[in-house]
Specification:
Elements lengths: L7 H11 L4 H4 L22 H13 L22 H7 L2 H4 L11 H18 L3 E2 L6 H16 L3 E4 L5 H14 L2 E4 L18 E7 L11 H9 L3 E6 L18 E5 L15 E5 L10 E7 L5 E8 L19 H38 L5 E2 L7 E5 L4 H10 L6 E2 L13 E5 L6 H14 L1
Parallel strand pairs: 2-3, 2-4, 4-5, 5-6
Antiparallel strand pairs: 1-7, 6-7, 8-9, 10-11, 11-13, 12-13
Helix pairs in contact: 4-10, 6-10, 7-8
């Protein structure tokens, strides 16, 4: 049996070894007030394996999943097509069991793909060095703020109102326990906030998302110049990494640190994880970068090889000298990213981005034509915000009842704010179809 492996004979033998006469005697130290007096209502007795499988298949059938319904949800996690080759490659034994290089030079294959991963990230972001890698984009963003504080020796982070709300909350948690100030702007629904005016001599960094949580795309060159003039660093966050196939890389806009969520490439939605964080910076800040950095070298015979060049984690060096306590590099997810991006190539990646933008543009035109609906964006990549004539949350529930996953109500991530109650985030990737868009438009007409 794959579960519940013990027989009554097994239990009797175990109890006899420890000197207990029964299971009840084994648990006699548990207070009576903590013991259930009867069975839990609705919970069935034990069943055979076939019956259990059928029961859980029935539970699963109640879900409305992205693969079985029109899907227009984004907000930091995007549905893209992942070629079957990716899963095949990452499940090969030499990759799956190697995982993290504690004896780095022995695992040359792992080091090589991490080196390739770093190279891909620097090319995508327009930066000079990248690590390998971070848990995800959200925790990577808080690590970037901590890094900026170390570099500037200042302790005030200016956070854009266009940063993903969950990323903001993680920064707030880090601020509470690491002792720095996080000044978070109001939700930048229209993409008009003036961050330049808020930068001062106490600012360690400015954190801005591009495209923003609300989908706005901005040129950050002037903001970068203002940060540098004040001695602060510019941290650019990208939650939809496919956007870098069309939008100017943050490094070319003057960013000092770039953090991305890499889920869109090679990694499925997975109910929120596991994901992979991309982290890149300027070479002059390399030694303050968290995580690990793989380098290329030659061995004693002059053959190409790879080494763990920098390991600024507490696992590798004295705890007080560590730049981060990150204890994994999301290695398998990084490999999935690398395999998928390699399959796409530069031309394929750009084409994928073009398709995403075209799909979203078509959806925006069709949704914006509905009575009472306003598209809030002048610019976007594959995600945009619309204002509905009534609260968005019940509209999304009504769409789900029709088996359409019609976006994300902003109020779910920014609760108790009347200004966002009617706002709906919609995303369209290459997986969106004409039939799916038609179903969404027809259902929206009905429920509105």
């Amino acid at each position: 049996m794959r579960y519940l492996p013990l027989t009554d004979t097994d239990r009797r033998e175990m109890l006899s070894v420890i000197g207990a006469k029964s299971v009840d005697e084994l648990f006699r130290d548990v207070p009576a007030s903590a013991v259930l007096g009867s069975k839990i209502a609705g919970l069935p007795d034990h069943q055979g394996e076939l019956e259990v499988e059928r029961a859980f298949q029935a539970y699963a059938a109640k879900n409305v999943s992205p693969g079985t319904a029109p899907f227009f949800v984004g907000a930091g996690a995007y549905r893209h097509h992942v070629p079957s080759t990716v899963d095949y490659m990452i499940q090969r034994g030499e990759f799956l069991t190697s995982y993290t290089p504690y004896q780095p030079e022995i695992t040359q294959g792992t080091l090589q793909y991490l080196f390739e991963f770093q190279t891909q990230i620097t090319l995508l972001t327009g930066m000079e060095v990248a690590n390998a890698s971070m848990y995800d984009g959200s925790t990577g963003t808080s690590e970037a703020v901590l890094m900026a504080n170390r570099v500037t020796r200042r302790h005030k982070a200016l956070i854009s109102g266009g940063l993903h709300p969950q990323y903001c909350r993680i920064i707030e948690t880090a601020a509470k326990w690491e002792g720095f100030s996080a000044v978070i702007g109001k939700p930048d629904v229209e993409g008009l906030e003036d961050l330049i005016a808020a930068v001062d001599k106490e600012t360690s960094c400015v954190v801005v998302q591009n495209p923003s949580f609300f989908g706005h795309v901005r040129d950050l060159a002037k903001l970068a110049a203002a940060c540098h003039a004040a001695g602060a660093l510019l941290i650019v966050v990208v939650t939809e990494v496919v956007s870098l196939g069309l939008i100017k890389p943050p490094g070319e806009m003057g960013a000092d640190i770039v953090v991305c969520e890499g889920q869109s490439i090679g990694n499925g939605l997975g109910f929120g994880g596991p994901y992979v964080g991309l982290f890149a910076t300027r070479e002059k800040y390399m030694r303050q970068m968290p995580g690990r950095l793989v380098g290329e070298t030659v061995d004693a015979d002059g053959k190409r090889g790879f080494v763990l060049t920098l390991s600024t984690r507490e696992q590798h060096i004295r705890r007080e000298k560590a730049t981060s306590n990150i204890c994994t590099n999301a290695g398998l997810c990084a490999l999935a990213f690398t395999v998928h991006l390699t399959l796409l190539g530069e031309a394929g990646f750009k084409r994928l981005a073009e398709i995403n933008h075209a799909k979203a543009s078509e959806l925006a035109d069709r949704v914006g034509a509905l009575p009472g609906v306003t598209v809030m964006n002048e610019s976007f990549f594959n995600e945009f915000t619309v204002r509905l004539p009534k609260p968005a949350a019940p509209i999304v529930e009504a769409l789900a009842a029709k088996r359409i996953l019609g976006g994300l109500p902003v109020s779910r991530l920014i609760p108790n704010d009347p200004a966002v109650e009617n706002l709906l985030l919609l995303a369209a990737t290459e997986t969106a179809t004409e039939v799916g868009m038609g179903s969404l438009i027809a259902a929206l007409k009905e429920v509105l």
